[in-house]
Write the structure tokens for this entry.
Amino acid sequence: MSAPLLLQELERGFAALSGRQRDAAGLGAARREQLAAALADGLPGARAERWRHTSLRALERRAFSPLPASADIDAATLAAIPGPRIVFVNGVFAAALSQLDGIDGVVAMPLSSALETGTARDVDFLARRFEAADETFARLNAAFALDGLLLQVGAGVQVAEPLALVMLGAAGDAEHAVHLRHCIQLGDGARLTLCEYQLAATPQAHLVNSLMHLHLRSGARLDHVRVQAEDAGATVLARSDVVLGSAADYRRIDLEIGANLSRHELNVALQGKAARLSASGVLLADGRRHVDTRLQIDHIARDTACELTWRGLAADRGRAVFHGGIAIRAGADGTAAQLSNKNLLLSANAEIDTQPVLEIHADEVQASHGATVGQLDEAALFYLRSRGVPEQAARTLLTLAFCRVVLDGIGNESLRERTDALLSARLLQVAA
Amino acid sequence: MLKIENLHVSVAGKEILKGLDLAVRPGEVHAIMGPNGAGKSTLGNVLAGRDGYEITAGTVDFGDKDLLQLEPEERAAEGLFLAFQYPVEIPGVNNTYFLKAALNAQRKYRGESELDSMQFLKLVREKLRVLHISDELLHRAVNAGFSGGEKKRNEIFQMALLEPRVAILDETDSGLDIDALKMVAEGVNHMRSPERAFVVITHYQRLLDYIVPDYVHVLAEGRIVESGDKTLAHKLEQHGYAWLDERRVPERATP
């Protein structure tokens, strides 16, 4: 059986990359190997357990150009996102839109610069091999990614201003496959707020495949807000691989409110004693959107904790898929794990699939999980309407209230207000 | 102003209101009393436009509008207010935000200019002062975690803010201690005016010591069986609702 069109086209595109791009930092062989592995195993099909609820059949018949192609963006597009920020347009670092000066104790640069000038050590994470047959997109990322954010926050450095990572999609002469690879490291006791935006500057139907490595060393704290509000034509594949050192504190909020097809994998290894993870999010599947979030939280060390709070909304013919996997390994005693996934089914044709999976091999753990699928509270709806709030506005108000628990977790006030406004504006478009 | 004629209402196939008549004119306070299961709350809910009630006969005119044809939010904007017997807790919706949205939606419906945040807060402060309510209620989610008394206070505060033409109080006195009851009554009395009418639905006569009605109606088995002035409430209090059964009058009394 020949490879699907998507992969054939990417293979052709790989050949069209310049040798300098392919072989930078001595990565040529690794890139070729990962591409070959992706071609050999193909795209995960219906029988791949981790892709059971997300079909790629429509995607595999499409062709995307893998050649980097930036586009001119009006800086006003970014007016709502203050600096410091690093901006990528269609996968290419946009120096004119980025503001990276003057963050003391922080090394921030585009991967493309590191590939040209840096030492191999700076980019050694790019040589990582992805062994599982269903890791097609990670393999493609390893083969193609030429840009992304490299960020190192020095030990003890407390960065006050939120740093924005912005990935913009813009229409061009083709539909592009965009591969971005980010690596973010916080030293001992370092502290940072990162806001990550995946947005559309103009309507397009690109495929965005991003892979982020995050490493928090001992006692570091990262507050991370990610907003995926891509164009309704776009396909987003995002994977975050996180390693937490002892007493590291990682607080993350994801709003998945855009794209036609979105798949997010969040893999967190709580490797150090007393590491903590708080990961919350909102999945919004309206129109014909398919939004899939898959968490795999791995408690390795003792006294670690995770709190996972996710809210799903499915309207029209949308489909929201949530998998909350928590593994507590032998020896990870004293672990506390909590998962809550509540969903609102806003139309008869929408679909929600939720699956909490707890695997416990340790003693003295506290673990709880709950998943519900329900509808808007009719009594609350009537109460609001009886005061004069029109029905549609009342539904939006209640839908936003349903997500409030997630937004309330954002510590930075202006960031919370901005994120709240983004979600409110987006919910106004939902016919609840 | 509010004219109910021969109203028949069924819930899940069971007839609850069986030909109810009531006429309320501006400036009047009507008390509707009755035993449990008489249809008191059904009346309030049907007037406010709640789903789940089948109106099988009768008409309700509100000003020059056919009330039963209006959506709940349109009824509110036309000037109808229902103080709920059980105000709904809505976690995640801020009370102030909700009230501003409600007031401005009503103003927009009536072709009035919407209030900005400053104007709205000024109005809120004014109402709070008059009602002696702490502004702490404003910062919380709608009724979420409120005590029974706080919920009823919030209902009265909403009423004061929205300034309806007709306010229906559905057993607002139930579960209230005497202080909260007085506060509710003060709120209502303060709002009494020649342009505004009240329909006070209650099981007990106690509330009517503080909100003195112009008319008292007894609702039993789905219709008004007796009407009179405030002395009727005292008679009921003395003799109990069983007294009605002995002297059930067939004609429908309308003030």
DSSP finds eight helices and twelve strands in chain B. The helical segments of chain B are 40-48, 72-78, 95-109, 117-131, 148-162, 178-191, 231-239, 242-246. Residues 95-109 of chain B form the longest helix (15 residues).
